[in-house]
Amino acid sequence: MKFEDLLLEIGGFGRFQILILAILCLLRINLPMHFLLHNFLAATPSHHCAIPHQEAFVNLTVEEVLLISIPRKPDGTFSSCEMFSQPQFHLLLNSSLQPENKSTIQHCQHGWVYDHSQFTSTISTQWDLVCEQRGLNQATATFFFIGVTMGAMVFGYLSDRFGRKTMLQLSLVCSMVFGMLSAASVSYTMLAITRTLTGVALSGLSLIVLPLGMEWVDVQHRTFTGILSSIFWSVGNMLLALAAYLVREWHWLLVAVTGPCLLSIVCLWWVPESARWLIAKGKVKQAHRHLLRCARMNGRKDFSVSPELFLSFHLSQTLTRMAADKSMGGSYSYISLFRTPVLRKISLCSGVVWFGVAFSYYGMSMNLTGFGLSIYLSQFVFGVIEIPAKMVMYVLVNRIGRRQSQAWTLILTGLCIGANIVIPKSFTSLRSVVAVMGKGFSEAAFTTVFLYTSELYPTILRQNGMGYTSFVARLGGALAPLMFLLDEVWRSLPEVTYCGVAVGSGAVAFLLPETLNVRLPEGIEDIE
């Protein structure tokens, strides 16, 4: 007797499951509000060196003061990081002249002046994270994803040990606390630490929501569950654009995107623990109570299985796993993912795929300029395009399978990134269309990988598997923003890197097994 057989008795997709999914989807909105917050939190407006003693130039216009104080770049714009040590008054006669002495050019000595027309304040303007300190600005996103990476390992293990719902509650409470502490940061160091801890906390939410929903629905509705959950990520994406447009000051923006965690904590009260997990852990009475509640809500009042039958069901599952338990040393851990041949291959290949998905997705998501749209509109459009991409994937993963969908969405993402390398900057409309297409393919790859991975691992190792792959994905997310610093080596090197990784990881996806219309594996013997 499999758990799917029990679900058929109580209703595999009724009012009970719809209630659970509605709440879990609302919880998922919190994620992109923080995961993509760097686009606005650390935005760098146009700036130039602060010019001392400007009162001496009262007879000059602002443009003329800049002309004699700030050198121009080859494209004719004023330098952001350099200034003249002495005013170059001769440039007033002919602005095309060169400075009289190259040695008069120096780095900014008196701070910077920022354009506040778009942002009232960001962490870049708060702590002058520009020019030589530009790396610290990009590192803010990296610190957050390092936190998410650490949290993936912690919450993957703890949710398998102490339960999905308990760890989800802990994740939300900690996210609320550390998010508010981030908003109250008085130094860059404090912000870096609290954003890292926020990443650790949110990792639990990222890791647990989808598997918890999956473990309550039948085989026929697993794909729908994955797609629906993913759509609410896109909703959060669009809400982030709206919040950032309305709140231009970074402290209050952090408050605005952290506030929904409080509502999520309240809503989680109505979500039950995973009955699959309870049965696997021998907590038969609790599982029995939740399943009876499910049957009542779904109108299956004739369902009346005794706790003793549940106990025998649990014992039969345990006996079928005993041989696997013995070979695994009697316990399950992350090492268990690599001990048997088929699981080892799945774990290695899925790790590569997750790295490629996250690396290319965040590489595209954090590059909102150069397409002829405002940063807010780019963020919103990138969120909107994700929804039809998910709808298409709902059909494709059930038609051509998970493996083909995963591989080709990644490869096409890479090709779109590569196309924008060769399309001239002046073709802003064409570049925007290609970028939006690439973002759609990238989100389709992310949607598929969540669904696909949750079907690859057995119940007893599912959260460990999701924790491991999430760990690898967050490494990709942590490295993605740092790639933008490579433009100092070669302007197109970041895009070339994103393109190569996406195509390569897409090719690796062909090595994974197909899971279309296959029952969720319960034990390791089902995999091997």
UniProtKB/TrEMBL annotation:
Q: What keywords are assigned to this protein? A: Cell membrane, Ion transport, Membrane, Transmembrane, Transmembrane helix, Transport
Primary subcellular site in the record, as a coarse category: membrane
Catalytic activity line of the entry: 3',5'-cyclic GMP(in) = 3',5'-cyclic GMP(out); guanosine(in) = guanosine(out); prostaglandin E2(out) = prostaglandin E2(in); 2'-deoxyguanosine(in) = 2'-deoxyguanosine(out)
Q: Which residues form the Major facilitator superfamily (MFS) profile domain?
A: 87-516
Q: Where in the cell is it found?
A: Apical cell membrane; Basolateral cell membrane
Q: Name one GO molecular function term.
A: prostaglandin transmembrane transporter activity
GO BP terms? monoatomic ion transport
Bilayer-crossing residues are 12-31, 139-158, 170-191, 197-217, 224-246, 252-271, 346-364, 376-396
Q: How does the record say this protein sits in the membrane? A: Multi-pass membrane protein
Q: Which domain of life does the protein's organism represent? A: Eukaryota
User: May I have one GO cellular component term?
Assistant: apical plasma membrane
> Can you tell me which family this protein belongs to?
Belongs to the major facilitator (TC 2.A.1) superfamily. Organic cation transporter (TC 2.A.1.19) family.
User: In its UniProt entry, what is this protein called?
Assistant: Solute carrier family 22 member 7
Organism listed in the record: Edolisoma coerulescens
Source taxonomy lineage? Eukaryota, Metazoa, Chordata, Craniata, Vertebrata
Q: Which gene encodes it?
A: Slc22a7
